Amino acid sequence: MKPLNNSVRRLLATVLAAGLMNSATAFDLDSDQPITVSADSARLDDGKGIAIYTGAVELAQGKTRLSAERVVLYRSADGLNRIEASGSPARYQQPVTSGEGETDAKAKNITWSATDKQLTFEREAVIEQNGNVFRGDIIHYDTEQRVVTAEGGEDTGAGPGRVEMVIQPRGNSTDSTQ
C-alpha cells in the first residue's frame, strides 16, 4: 500500500473540509443527549469497562446514528472513550452542521475514538454527502482539526485499490427540490 504524497493529502483535506465531511464531531460526550443502544443481545463486563452488543445493533445520540452487526463500547473512569462497530457494512449517519443533508458513511469497520477525536472507516469505506462521494480502503477523519486522510487498498484484481472522489459542482445538488 503506497502512502499518499503531500499534494494529494492537501487536496483531500481541502476538498473534504469544504464540503464532504462538513459535520460536527461524531458522538458528543459533552451533550445533554444520552447515547442509546438497542440490540438482539448484550454482554457487559463492568470490571473491564466493556459492553458488547450483537445482532442488528442501533446506537443513537440525537440525530447521529450508528448501525452494525456488532458494537463494542469501551468506558474508562472518564466515561465512554471508544466505539468499535463492524458489519456488512456498518453504517454511520449524521446531519451536516450547515445547510441541509446528512453524512452517510459505510464500511466493514467503523471506529470512533474520543481520545484521538477521530473517526476511522476501514474496508470498503464509502462516505456520501449531498451527492459528493469519497471511497477508500481506510479513511481517517480528525473531527477536531477537520482533516481527512485516506488510503487505497491493495489491487486484488477486483479493482484498482485507489482512493476515489466524486465532487459535485458548486450550486449543483442531487436534491431535486432545489
From TrEMBL:
Keywords, A to Z, come to: Periplasm, Signal, Transport
Q: Name the segments for region: Disordered.
A: 151-178
What Pfam families does this protein's entry cite? LptD_N
**Range of residues in the leader sequence:** 1-26
* Main localization, broad class: periplasm
| UniProt entry tagged with the keyword Signal | yes
Gene3D superfamilies tied to this protein: Lipopolysaccharide (LPS) transport protein A like domain
Q: S-adenosyl-L-methionine as a keyword?
A: no
Domain Organic solvent tolerance-like N-terminal stretches: 37-145
* Subcellular location(s) per record: Periplasm
**Domain of life of the organism in this record?**
Bacteria
Per its database record, what is this protein's job?
A: Involved in the assembly of lipopolysaccharide (LPS). Required for the translocation of LPS from the inner membrane to the outer membrane. May form a bridge between the inner membrane and the outer membrane, via interactions with LptC and LptD, thereby facilitating LPS transfer across the periplasm.
Q: Which family does it belong to?
A: Belongs to the LptA family.
The entry describes its oligomerization and partners as: Component of the lipopolysaccharide transport and assembly complex.
Q: By what name is this protein known?
A: Lipopolysaccharide export system protein LptA
Taxonomic path = Bacteria, Pseudomonadati, Pseudomonadota, Gammaproteobacteria, Pseudomonadales
